Amino acid sequence: MNIYSQEVLELKKEILTEISNELKNITNFRIKTNTKAYYELKKTISKWDLEINEISNSINYNDDVNEKFSFIKIDRKTLESLINLNNKLKIGNISKLLDTLTITYEEFFVKYSLIEIRYLDLNKKIQKALNNTDLYIGEILDNEYGIKKNEKILYKIDDIIIYEDKEYLDAKNLKKYPIGENVFWISLNFTLADIEKFNSLYFNF
């Protein structure tokens, strides 16, 4: 049994247990004993309790699975929200709903915190020194996400996100850092050693 199948069983067990407990509450406090309805409910509860035990045995038998999560793991509350949304939109199944949401909102999620950047004009000595490192300096095209046009951005090549043939950085991955009289927004990928290296190259020319 793969981990996804195990999670399906766990969800089924959770639902059956909840229903069984509710029925037990009904038989114990809300229905008269020695009635046909009472005995029918008891039979149903016994049947579901047996199925719950079988599911538990299957899950326990699969405890040695090395995987910790399936490719996609959705908790019950989220799944219920998706089912309700799917019922309203009448798209089909949950898989089709997720595909539709992904296509519709992909651009919004991708571009939500991206800032377009351009290279900063530097004097030749500084540029030559930086060319021998993996450190880059740039600026944004317009004030956004709290970053001003006159504030410089330090980043690495791995920080660059190419979207529609333009270069962007994720504003969430930048931290404001004053150096002397200048304000820099520095990539979280920078180490203290990177900052010291930049200082020695940028301010010594």
Features:
elongated; about 200 residues; 6 helices; seven-stranded mixed beta sheet; about 50% helix
Write a structural description:
51% of the residues lie in helices and 17% in strands. With 205 residues, it is of the alpha+beta class. It has three domains: 3-61; 76-111; 114-202, no CATH class. Strands 4-5-1-2-3-7-6 form a seven-stranded mixed beta sheet, with no helix packed on it. Residues 65-71 have low confidence and may be disordered.
Secondary structure: elements and pairs:
Elements: H1 3-29, H2 36-61, H3 76-89, H4 94-111, E1 114-119, H5 124-131, E2 136-140, E3 152-155, E4 161-163, E5 166-170, E6 174-179, E7 182-187, H6 192-202
Parallel strand pairs: 3-7
Antiparallel strand pairs: 1-2, 1-5, 2-3, 4-5, 6-7
Helix pairs in contact: 1-2
Give a quick precis of the structure.
The protein has helices spanning 3-29, 36-61, 76-89, 94-111, 124-131, 192-202, and strands at residues 114-119, 136-140, 152-155, 161-163, 166-170, 174-179, 182-187.
Biggest β-sheet: strands ordered side by side in the sheet = 4-5-1-2-3-7-6
Q: What characteristic shape results from the CA principal axes? A: elongated
Parts with pLDDT < 50 across at least 5 consecutive residues: 65-71
User: Order of helices and strands, N to C?
Assistant: HHHHEHEEEEEEH
Give the CA-CA distance, first to last residue.
64 Å
What would you report as the Rg, rounded to the nearest angstrom?
Answer: 29 Å
The major pleated sheet works out as: 7 strands, mixed
Helical percent range? 40-55%
Would you tell me the overall average pLDDT? 80
How many structural domains are formed by the residues? Answer: 3
